[in-house]
Design brief:
The chain is α/β, with parallel strands linked by helices. The protein has 2 domains: about 160 residues, Leucine Aminopeptidase, subunit E, domain 1; about 325 residues, Zn peptidases (Aminopeptidase, 3-Layer(aba) Sandwich), CATH 3.40.630.10. The strands form 3 sheets. An 8-stranded mixed beta sheet has the order 7-8-10-9-13-17-14-15, with helices on both faces. The chain has a 6-stranded mixed beta sheet with strand order 1-6-5-2-4-3, sandwiched between helices. The chain is elongated, with a radius of gyration of 25 Å. The termini are far apart. The chain binds ligand BES, manganese (II) ion and zinc ion. Manganese (II) ion binds next to loops. The site of manganese (II) ion (MN) has 5 residues, from loops.
Length: about 525
């Protein structure tokens, strides 16, 4: 566990630690360099800055040098803060992530961060910096027999007024915990994480937060008429059968207004089914959508967000076997639409179809947001820095992208439209589960849209490119499960869905008499 303390800056360099982190701005403003003791520190900083031609003080740049003899430190890491103007939470978080990367390379574990410049209205941003460090420090080594023990970092952050940062950091802790929960689930191998064990992990994680997951097993799904969902899991062995998990978070007290709904694709492994994949490496991450929804629910409950959210997770495996669903099978979804399964590897949309119908009919949400590692096509289009954002509501789409950008979980708008809907019309049935030639990310989204009812606002985030295999991200671990979506959803909810306590009514001025 990493331990942070936010302390006032008096005597900030008096405490010994392995490393001192020295912020340097773009324009090489002196910053703390001239203010810290002992005096040779300032000279050493100036020396490092003038002899290293590469180090410009650009946001997140780092330079590790020996600390001067006689100081309380072994190493000094200069960290670029960017321009002196315009510091914000995102930049602070990014810098925190970069500090982690530089610190991890030293093998040392105790540090002092001289955060003098986080003062006044910016004081709280020292918490964002710490949050960035935490997010980037995630590791998953539990299956290494010679487990490299993840080091315990002790971090002192010195700044003029530590109180706002301390308070904000406490609010951010549940968000980091939610992201870590999502990553932990995503990284588990499929022999450990099955629909059943995943549902159990959800229970263990959520119960302490006061949430009791409801599980609808296969028989229940059949009774509900979830023929599309059930078809996907019917080739799995008895202990890996499909199930739906429902989570309800009521953060507004007895508010009875309509909730926000989150839906997650939770394929604990996707072989492709009879339409077998040729390369199925990393298909354990096909539950990334569900993991993100779980992590977001944990974050909301952890920070007691004033919002009502229901979550539905579609958990299944897409397996082969004598009972596996077959190409040319025609199945009936919960909303009565019939679907010709032309490719068993387009299974996510079958699972989501019934989850979408279920969540709308049971909870009457005003807005539904689904997250899914749905298509390789989306990954091909957008790579691994952005998810695809499909929506029937322009405002919702914009909000998702704006809130995501604030936390480095970016989205890019992708189209729905009649041409994509036309591509999934069936010859023998209402729908086919693959588009006839159309662009795969949009035809998949158009398929989901068939299950959106009435005026429900809906957005679909295709996270196939970002759930894993990301490199060089400021706050996500390289290569492994990212937990993408947890922070986007949390930020979106904070920005737009929380019921702020009503401001006390002010007495209206009496209307002037005519
Ligand atoms: N889980 C995959 C999508 C995926 C691909 C995620 C690569 C991450 C990386 C999904 O179930 C799938 O197989 N989609 C098919 C759809 C096709 C058969 C229409 C795809 O993208 O190839
Ligand atoms: Mn598939
Ligand atoms: Zn899949």
């Amino acid at each position: 566990m990493t331990h942070f303390s936010f302390t006032s800056q008096a005597g900030q360099t008096d405490h010994a630690s392995d490393i001192v982190i020295v912020p340097v701005y773009d324009k090489r403003a002196p910053g703390v360099a001239t203010m810290i003791a002992p005096a040779q520190m300032g000279a050493a900083i100036q020396h490092a800055m003038t002899t290293d031609l590469h180090f410009q003080g650009k946001t997140g740049q780092t330079l590790t040098v020996p600390a001067p003899a006689g100081s309380n430190f072994k190493k000094m890491i200069l960290v670029g803060m960017g321009a002196t103007k315009g510091m914000d939470s995102l930049r602070a978080e990014t810098i925190g992530g970069k500090i982690y990367t530089a610190v991890a390379a030293t093998g040392m574990t105790s540090l002092t961060i001289l955060a003098n410049d986080f003062s006044g209205a910016n004081a709280h941003m020292a918490a964002d910096l710490a949050h960035g460090f935490v997010l980037k420090s995630y590791t998953f080594d539990k299956y290494k027999s010679q487990a490299p023990q993840a080091p315990d970092y002790t971090i002192r952050i010195a700044l003029p007024n530590p109180t706002p940062a301390r308070e904000k950091f406490a609010q951010l802790a549940p968000v980091a915990a939610g992201a870590f929960l999502a990553r932990d689930l995503a990284n588990e191998p499929p022999n450990v994480l099955t629909p059943k064990t995943m549902a159990e992990r959800v229970r263990v994680a959520m119960e302490p937060l006061g949430l009791n997951p409801e599980i609808i097993h296969e028989a229940g799904l059949k009774a509900l008429g979830a023929g599309a969902f059930v078809a996907v899991g019917q080739g799995s062995s008895p202990d890996k059968r499909p199930m739906m998990v429902v989570l309800r978070y009521n953060g507004t007290g007895n508010d009875t207004s309509r909730p926000l709904a989150l839906v997650g694709k939770g394929l604990t492994f996707d072989t492709g089914g009879l339409s077998l994949k040729t390369n199925m490496s990393n298909m354990k991450f096909d539950m990334g959508g569900a993991a993100a929804v779980i992590g977001a629910m944990a974050a909301l409950a952890g920070r007691k967000a004033p919002v009502d959210v229901v979550a539905v997770l579609g958990l299944a495996r897409n397996d082969i076997g004598p009972d596996a669903n077959c190409v040319d099978d025609i199945v009936t979804a919960m909303n009565g639409k019939t679907i010709d399964v032309q490719n068993t590897d387009a299974e996510g949309r079958l699972v989501l179809a019934d989850c979408l119908t279920y969540v709308q009919r049971r909870f009457n949400p005003h807005t539904v947001i689904d997250l899914a590692t749905l298509t390789g096509a989306c990954k091909a289009a957008l790579g691994s820095t952005m998810c695809g954002v499909f929506s029937n509501d322009e405002t919702l789409s914009k909000r998702i992208r704006a809130s995501g950008a604030k936390v480095s979980e970016r989205g890019w708008p992708m189209p729905l439209g009649p041409e994509f809907s036309a591509a999934i019309r069936g010859t023998y049935s209402d729908l086919v589960n693959i588009g006839n030639g159309g662009p795969g990310a949009s035809t998949a989204a158009a398929f989901l849209q068939e299950f959106i009812e009435g005026k429900t606002k809906w957005a679909h985030l295709d996270i196939a490119g970002v759930a894993n295999g990301v490199f060089g991200h400021p706050t996500m671990p390289d290569k492994i499960g990212t937990g993408f979506g947890v922070r986007l959803l949390n930020q979106l909810i904070m920005d737009h869905f929380e019921k702020k306590p009503k401001a006390p009514k002010t007495e209206a001025a009496p209307a002037p008499k005519a």
